[in-house]
Amino acid sequence: MEDKYTDELFEKILNHQSWPNFPEIVSELQTIAITSFKKDTTEGYVASILIFHQIIEEALKTLIKLSELLVKAHIWPSEIEYQFNEERKMFGQVLGEFERSIDFKEKKELINVAREMNGIRIGIVHKLTSRGVGDVKNEADKFRMLYSKFMELYGKGEDSYIWMLDDLRRSVYMGFQNDLTVD
After folding, report:
1. Considering the chain, what is the average pLDDT of its residues?
2. Cα angle vertex 23, ends 151, 37, to 5°?
3. Backbone angles phi, psi at 78, to 5 degrees
4. Which of 72, 74, 118, 124 has the CA that lies 20 to 30 A from 160?
């Protein structure tokens, strides 16, 4: 094709298996978080909150990457390079980057749920010594319910981005690829 950027973009768009998705370990971590919660102990509640929180952070990173790929696909043949480096980012920075991504119907609600979950995590982690066991359990219960809601909204957002990417893949990129191979 024309250049390295175009070659890499086409390779990525045409192979949906290479699109951003959750790391494989997430399902195992989710099981650990659920098991920790079911221990019905303070350490189990705290562990479940921390693990679930890490999973939602990975979910947001996945949506950011899907949005970035979608933008690149939409503006091609123009080029854009993103500067977001997910390493060493605090949750608030990841959430801020996600807020700047492409919209989908449930995005604002997902952001609100993520903020509420982060508030609970901060309250538990930074004020654990001033909380009673019952308070930790109540916060963990609330967090777990918010996690379920977050994952439902995440799935809708992911589906939205993937639908848009797949539509572009079929209508633009596969047609363009066919035009190139006809010559």
Report:
1. 90
2. 50
3. -70, 160
4. 118
